[in-house]
Amino acid sequence: MGRRVCSREFKLEAVKLVQERGMGLGQAARDRESAQRDSTPTRSSA
Predict the structure, then answer these.
(1) Residue 2 covered by a domain
(2) Is residue 23 in some structural domain?
(3) Which listed residue, 6, 17, 31, 39, has the most CB atoms within 10 A of its CB?
(4) Residue 18 class from Cβ within 10 Å (0-12 exposed, 13-18 middle, 19+ buried)?
(5) Got the DSSP string for 9-43?
(6) SS3 8
(7) Residue 46: what pLDDT?
(8) What is the pLDDT of residue 42?
(9) In a structure prediction context, what are the per-residue pLDDT tens digits for the chain, which is 46 residues long?
(10) What number of other Cβ atoms are within 10 A of residue 31's Cβ?
(11) Radius of gyration for the alpha carbons in the chain, expressed in angstroms and rounded
């Protein structure tokens, strides 16, 4: 598996979570990734 490419916005939100909530960077990134995945509409298979 290759390296993940994250948007600038994604990275800034992850850093914000680390600073405000004191969570680790890895956990913040996973939380952001999960939120991003949940808000992205899935394509219907037709």
Answers:
(1) no
(2) yes
(3) 17
(4) middle
(5) HHHHHHHHHHHHH---HHHHHHHHHHHHHHHSPPP
(6) helix
(7) 47
(8) 55
(9) 677 788 898 888 878 888 888 888 788 778 777 877 777 665 555 4
(10) 15
(11) 13
**Token reading at 3:** 């390296």
Say what the pLDDT of residue 41 is: 60
Count of beta carbons in the 10 Å neighbourhood of residue 33: 14
Looking at the 3D structure of the chain, how many domains does it have?
1
Overall residue count recorded for the chain in this entry: 46
Range of the domain at 33: 8-39
12 CB-side CA count, 13 A: 3
Whether the model pTM is above 0.70: no
